[in-house]
Amino acid sequence: MFFTKLFSINEVYKILEKEQKILDLEVVRLENAYKRICAKDIVSKLDSPPFDRAAMDGYAVKAEDTFQASEDNPVELKVIDRISAGSASNKKINSGEAIKVNTGAPLPPGANAVIMEEYVLEKNDDKILITKRVTPLENVSLKGEDIKRGDKVIKKGQILRSQELGALASAGYSKIEVYKRPKVNIIVTGDELVEPKESLKLGEIINSNKYIMLGMVKSTNAIPNVKHCNDNPTQLKEMLLEAKEKYDLIITTGGTAVSESDIVVDTVDEIGKVFFHGTAIQPGKAMAFGKIDGTPIFMLSGYPVAAMVQFDIFVRPYLLRMQGIDFEHQIVKRITKKKIISSLGRTTFVRGIADDKYVTPILSKGSGIIRSMVKANCYIVVDENVEGIYKGEECDVILFNSFTLGV
Amino acid sequence: MFFTKLFSINEVYKILEKEQKILDLEVVRLENAYKRICAKDIVSKLDSPPFDRAAMDGYAVKAEDTFQASEDNPVELKVIDRISAGSASNKKINSGEAIKVNTGAPLPPGANAVIMEEYVLEKNDDKILITKRVTPLENVSLKGEDIKRGDKVIKKGQILRSQELGALASAGYSKIEVYKRPKVNIIVTGDELVEPKESLKLGEIINSNKYIMLGMVKSTNAIPNVKHCNDNPTQLKEMLLEAKEKYDLIITTGGTAVSESDIVVDTVDEIGKVFFHGTAIQPGKAMAFGKIDGTPIFMLSGYPVAAMVQFDIFVRPYLLRMQGIDFEHQIVKRITKKKIISSLGRTTFVRGIADDKYVTPILSKGSGIIRSMVKANCYIVVDENVEGIYKGEECDVILFNSFTLGV
Description:
The structure is a homodimer. Chain A is an alpha/beta fold.
């Protein structure tokens, strides 16, 4: 029932930072590590490439032997061995000799360059004619030129995209220690909520928050479980007491305003601690944060758009930091193509459509208008001290794509 | 063995467009539809909200009854009913009457506005005093103001983010028809390849492409399966013949250059059709595309960075289009902080680190340097007719984040 003051965004962030929970670690096989978060700085066990190797198909030679070579004046060399990738020659090249190599094969001892096949004429089984000069190290990949043994290849907190997985493999790792994925219980409250169907009784509202929150939680790599709860404090209390044992984080939607039917915040206050109730953002004022025996709980609005804004601004950073990601919202500048109207005293998140230079605000009435989010690819962020932004002015934008954990 | 000419990017795109395969459809439950691709235009079965409803907790009234109300001159109304969200009143409000409503409750017949609780004094059980005037439709959400029955809510080819799932639920859908996810067989070729381990024999190379390609394929929502194959045409042929039956698409890495040990393109040519071999891109020249009995096969380079560029530029759009997404690369402009060196005659993809305004090219020697991809968040694209770009000039950039399928 309390809503004594609205907490500013920065006050909320300070509380969340103080109450941030970080998850334990687990070891996963590299093939299952895509988009997981590396838990430690990783130092390479190996050089990559592990040896000087041929970067082209051709003949390993002493570069000096080719310095006089040209099409008119080919140089003859003796082929003393032929090796493919995956095998090595134990023969050493002396002046006047060559070894046939495939791309990736170790450079034989004595050789310092590879001449491409197309500049070589095969005279007979063990004689070739070189028609072009090569310089030392030409067509050679040097040992460790990509990764040196002992190099730090991946940093703690780094998201493992495809290329990071490749670097870890090359560094000799088949398993990797990562942060656990948060298990999140979503409890959607509201007597009026029903599953999607073709016709509704008067008073029934479709539970769209269930599907929205499932998607939002998945987008952070967390593992969601969703339940519905009536506006019944006893039922809610039971669900919360079960959730705080089984899950890493709880999200509720609905029941966060200040009328007597808004039971969520009072119920959490009864069995845990509420750190604040009410934030100075628009949409999304009716939100609270608490803990029940150490399990964080975000109490979001029942209005879909308000709940999405609350999620993106507060829950998303919290869930990502739980997994060891040092997440901060990335603000970029765009020029608005239309006047933006905002609420003085509250940081306003206007849905917008941005390209690389401009943004068009989406005009919509309230925090129930989910189609404004369907059209949008960004939030325009208007400071609480600003009343609006004129057409043609620069404004702050958070692109939804900036929430991605890498591709 | 063939490599008769290098195909330009546009020539390759034309071939791929002609040979594009599109997957069949399937119906999934809405809770499993996150990031799937909608297969049809979806028209709402319902209005959302489904009825005029209270947007605030308070009292439903006739606005006209409050026009004279003020703190000094409160207007008395009779409370004839109390309803919460999820239920409705069958009573009709007449002049001088009010019904207590919670947010989300249907607006009772006769009422045309809601006055917030905080402007109401409760006199006794069935009498209230109104201290502020409300205008007609104040604090009312009108039926259909978000979505109207018959409105197109989601378009064919749209990626289902959280908000699209919410809109579909509100439109009355619990299931949705989407494109199937492509099943992709990745065949990594090379005798020299071994799994990650702490020490290597001379000639052995760690199979990093396995992990890189697993990640790349996952990033397109496709379902990967990965196998290793030696440089052995018989083994490869067997694997390909099995793969073309079981999978929607095949990706190979390695064996695409033109020496006799490069067996992949010849093998595909023997059992299927090769449409081109060799593209005018840098890195990534050694690539081919074919079909084996209608199953598309992308033959990528064995060099990790070359294979990643080939994937991002050609395979990624193909895999996304298979799922019904009308994907095009998004080119944005950035100012380069350093000189960019490129290859005349080939479209060059230089790895870069971009912010919202600038890009810094990553200098690296070859297409084996996976760390250049670890540092990068974009490609700088240099046209085949351009030899380089000076520091301070604008250049074309593809941000890796633009590959995301929405968050």
